[in-house]
Specification:
- The chain is an alpha/beta fold.
- Helix content is about 40%, strand content about 20%.
- The protein has two domains: about 200 residues, Rossmann fold (3-Layer(aba) Sandwich); about 170 residues, Glycogen Phosphorylase B (Rossmann fold, 3-Layer(aba) Sandwich).
- The strands form two sheets. Strands 3-4-2-1-5-6-7-8 form an eight-stranded mixed sheet, with helices on both faces. Strands 11-10-9-12-13-14 form a six-stranded parallel sheet, sandwiched between helices.
- Helix 10 links the parallel strand 12 and strand 13.
- Helix 2 packs across helix 14 and helix 10 packs across helix 13.
Length: about 400
């Protein structure tokens, strides 16, 4: 690999030029990768680095914007049957070459499949961050990976110079699935702004309020959470649930997931389960502050951003016990783990916390301490910066 351009810039200044490949940068429809990319891009920009986010989006023409100093380049996604991969690769390659000629790039980073469209000889260090790719989620959820998406992911991984992962679990699972052998994988957890997400003493908790944050879809465990509500509501008369997040559609029937969930709710309980829709991120802490308990019963995660934000809020958490959950919550210390496939297990954990205010407060304090110690954005940004410099050296 030709490191000349990257070495020249790294040797002449402490300022790096980092390019994140991301096809879901906010405010476009996004999930955890989009949220992570925006958070980290802003943090690195604030430290004086040049950060560019580049990706393919369902729009008719290319666009460019400035997000707090981060340059966001949205390339028009080619929708040509059979030719999309070729056309998109050409568009991305040209855009990267133009950018590199203007401002030499040190690092190009993206999720598991992102380097498939990047030329193998592009003169920058190429990093894959394991957020939980196609092989990871399909295999851990007991599904068979799709051939085409598997090929793209494997092709992408072959081009990487370095790897990092958002959790030990996702790193080791991906290592096995993609046959990476003994190649080093740096563990760099998602970070949270612990000044923005922090306990709000001025906001009173609402009696019985349970909050879930995330996309309304099967793998997030929302179905089991809704099914857990009847026993919760019977045990705690004030219990009510807010579901915060964007809806999803069943690709076969076209029915929204929220419609499917509504059909499961008994009539007597319908006014106690509220579908709030997506909420702009800056206003989320004010809503979370009102909850007595936060619940995230995902069937599988690489490492969820929403639970980390809940930790930082100093709230009692219930999260699914699969995958990297123990890396987020110490069971019985900073929260409770439950079987996310079992409504009764979810209900038991929520009821335990809702009936014991002292326990909620104790776990909330420990949750806040854990967030500050392990997931503070400034500390995580320090580790990312150090990792990039080791990659360049």
């Amino acid at each position: 690999m030709n490191h000349s351009a990257a070495d020249e810039v790294a040797g002449s200044t402490d300022r790096l030029h980092i390019v994140f490949l991301c096809n879901e940068y906010p405010p476009s429809s996004h999930g955890g990768i989009g949220s992570f990319t925006q958070t980290m891009a802003r943090a690195l920009t604030a430290r004086g680095h040049k950060v560019t986010v580049m990706g393919l989006y369902p729009q008719s023409r290319d666009s460019h914007e400035n997000d707090r100093g981060t340059s966001v380049v949205r390339l028009a996604h080619a929708r040509k049957p059979g030719l999309g991969l070729v056309v998109n690769r050409r568009r991305l390659t040209r855009a990267l070459k133009r950018l590199h000629a203007e401002h030499p790039i040190n690092i190009v980073e993206g999720p598991e499949n992102s380097l498939a469209l990047v030329h193998r000889n592009f003169p920058a260090v190429k990093v894959i961050r394991m957020h939980g790719g196609h092989h990871f989620f399909y295999t851990t959820l007991g599904l068979k990976p799709r051939f085409w998406r598997s090929w793209i992911e494997k092709h992408s991984v072959q081009k990487a110079d370095h790897f990092c992962g958002v959790s030990q679990f996702v790193a080791e699972q991906t290592r096995t699935l993609l046959r990476l052998g003994g190649r080093p994988i740096e563990i760099l957890p998602n970070g949270v702004n612990v000044d923005h997400f922090q306990p709000r003493a001025e906001i009173a908790e609402e009696a019985g309020l349970i909050i879930f944050v995330g996309t309304l879809c099967e793998k997030k465990g929302v179905r089991q959470l809704v099914q857990a509500m009847p026993p919760i509501a019977k045990a705690v008369p004030t219990a009510h649930l807010w579901l915060i997040g964007r809806d999803s559609l069943d690709p076969d029937s076209g029915v929204s997931f929220s419609q499917q969930l509504t059909s499961l709710i008994p009539e007597w309980l319908k006014d106690r389960i509220k579908f709030c829709g997506p909420v702009v991120h800056p206003s989320l802490p004010e809503l979370l502050a009102r909850a007595e308990v936060l619940v995230y019963p995902s069937h599988m995660e690489s490492i969820g951003i929403a639970p980390i934000e809940g930790l930082a809020m100093g709230k009692a958490l219930v999260i699914g016990n699969k995958g990297p959950a123990p890396e987020v919550v110490e069971h019985g210390v900073s929260g409770l783990l439950c079987d996310p496939f079992s409504p009764s297990s979810i209900a038991a954990a929520v009821i335990q916390l809702m009936r014991d205010r002292a326990l909620r407060r104790q776990m909330g304090e420990r949750a806040r301490s854990r967030a500050v110690e392990l997931f503070c954005l400034e500390k995580v940004a320090d580790r990312n910066e150090a990792f990039y410099r080791r990659c360049l050296s």
